[in-house]
């Protein structure tokens, strides 16, 4: 029977297939978190005398057995079982009988799935943040390695002013600090406890919601039980917004790699192991990794709007529409983790071309340097600008490649130390250690 099924009432196979959808597949992601939520809920029930101490001992023992099965990859949702919550409760009831049936006291499947999703999202945002830091570290390392290797800077895709590979790599590193700030916002929202809100209207049992908050390592509660249920969808949207923001950085980086790797730019090369060939043109070495990275991350940017459309015009309270959000969130998390991994690998193996700006075709990149030289000599800027423009027009302009960029964040001073300090400060704000300590205590 389903958790919600009544005696003598059945649902047609057609309706069951439609309403369950991909839930059994998506719920496998939630299995370890459902067990953790059950452990915390059981301890809370015992603390308010809704479970005997001996019953709590039995439940904790069996839940830890199930948790070990999940961690070993041996957990499955059986045929005919609707979701992970039903499967765990069934396993407890098979082993413990009536004691297993008591685990649902003071709880609805609504707040059970919501706490599972909060725990899952919190966990995956930590993984995404750590993988983002891995990419960040590679970018800073490459920036330092190539801070003296010049690169054409562009505006409107026309050569503009001198830049450097140090600035190029470092720019994406600093972009990731902003992306981590948004990941942190999403993390803090996922790190609030909805358990005890029931179906969205609380319970007449004297539930200790602060206890489950502490046991699960949450930093706080969704206090109002109605709003706790309203946070469903908002949690997913905020996580996907942070993922989409990160995807924006990665997609722009991927586009740069595609552009800079082409023969007409020829600023960098990808080693053979990172390229593919053509079925007809023997000379081709295609940047498929960067192209697929661009495509995958561009798709991720659309997902917050997909959640917005699922939630459009829903009133307060729970609605089954929200089940569909799992199918948006969970694959997106796997995708961004894969994209971050391949980005780090690509950046580690990119080969930079040096002495690019020695080519005469880049002479005009240094026109501003010529203007600045005149300004230092005492010529007013507007007059110096006109003079250099006239020199270019008459063909008398001579480029000086003697760069004197020293200010913070410039070619000569890319500020990688300050950018690293900014990232470190962002990472301090998550509180990963507090969560880890709480969950380790819960599962011991």
Automatic annotation (TrEMBL):
Keywords: Amino-acid biosynthesis, Arginine biosynthesis, Cytoplasm, Lyase. HAMAP family: Arg_succ_lyase. The keyword Phosphoprotein does not apply. It comes from Siphonobacter curvatus. GO terms for cellular component: cytosol. Belongs to the lyase 1 family. Argininosuccinate lyase subfamily. This is Argininosuccinate lyase. It catalyses: 2-(N(omega)-L-arginino)succinate = fumarate + L-arginine. GO terms for molecular function: argininosuccinate lyase activity. CDD domains: Argininosuccinate_lyase. The lineage of its organism: Bacteria, Pseudomonadati, Bacteroidota, Cytophagia, Cytophagales. It is found in: Cytoplasm.
């Amino acid at each position: 029977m389903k958790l919600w099924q009544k005696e003598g009432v059945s649902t047609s196979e057609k309706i069951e297939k439609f309403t369950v959808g991909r839930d059994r597949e998506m719920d496998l992601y939630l299995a370890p978190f459902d067990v953790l939520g059950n452990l915390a809920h059981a301890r809370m029930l015992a603390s308010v005398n809704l479970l005997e101490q001996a019953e709590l001992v039995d439940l904790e023992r069996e839940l830890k057995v199930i948790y070990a099965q999940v961690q070993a990859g041996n957990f499955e949702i059986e045929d005919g079982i609707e979701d992970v919550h039903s499967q765990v409760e069934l396993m407890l009831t098979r082993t413990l009988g009536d004691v297993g049936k008591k685990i649902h006291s003071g709880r609805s499947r609504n707040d059970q799935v919501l706490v599972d999703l909060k725990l899952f999202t919190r966990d995956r945002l930590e993984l995404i943040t750590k993988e983002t830091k891995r990419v960040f570290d590679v970018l800073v390392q490459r920036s330092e390695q190539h801070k003296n290797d010049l690169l054409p800077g562009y505006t409107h895709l026309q050569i503009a002013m001198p830049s450097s590979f140090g600035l190029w790599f470092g720019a994406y590193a600093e972009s990731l600090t902003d992306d981590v700030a948004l990941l942190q916002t999403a993390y803090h929202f996922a790190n609030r406890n909805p358990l005890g809100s029931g179906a969205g209207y609380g319970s007449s049992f004297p539930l200790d919601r602060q206890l489950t908050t502490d046991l699960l390592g949450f930093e706080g509660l969704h206090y109002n039980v109605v709003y706790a249920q309203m946070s469903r969808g908002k949690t997913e949207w905020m996580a996907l917004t942070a993922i989409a923001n990160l995807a924006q950085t990665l997609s722009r980086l991927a586009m740069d790699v595609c552009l800079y790797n082409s023969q007409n730019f020829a600023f960098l090369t990808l080693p053979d192991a990172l390229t593919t060939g053509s079925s007809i043109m023997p000379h081709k070495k295609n940047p498929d990794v960067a192209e697929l990275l661009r495509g995958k991350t561009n798709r991720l940017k659309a997902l917050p709007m997909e959640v917005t459309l699922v939630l459009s015009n829903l009133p307060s309270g729970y609605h089954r529409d929200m089940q569909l959000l799992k199918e948006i969130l969970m694959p997106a998390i796997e995708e961004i983790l894969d994209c971050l991994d391949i980005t780090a690998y690509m950046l580690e193996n990119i080969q930079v071309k040096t002495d690019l700006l020695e080519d005469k075709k880049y002479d005009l990149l240094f026109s501003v340097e010529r203007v600045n030289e005149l300004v230092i000599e005492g010529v007013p800027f507007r007059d110096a600008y006109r003079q250099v423009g006239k020199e270019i027009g008459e063909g008398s302009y001579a480029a000086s490649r003697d760069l004197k960029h020293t200010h913070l964040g410039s070619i000569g001073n890319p500020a990688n130390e300050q950018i690293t300090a900014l990232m470190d400060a962002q990472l301090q704000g998550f509180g990963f250690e507090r969560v880890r300590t709480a969950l380790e205590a819960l599962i011991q």
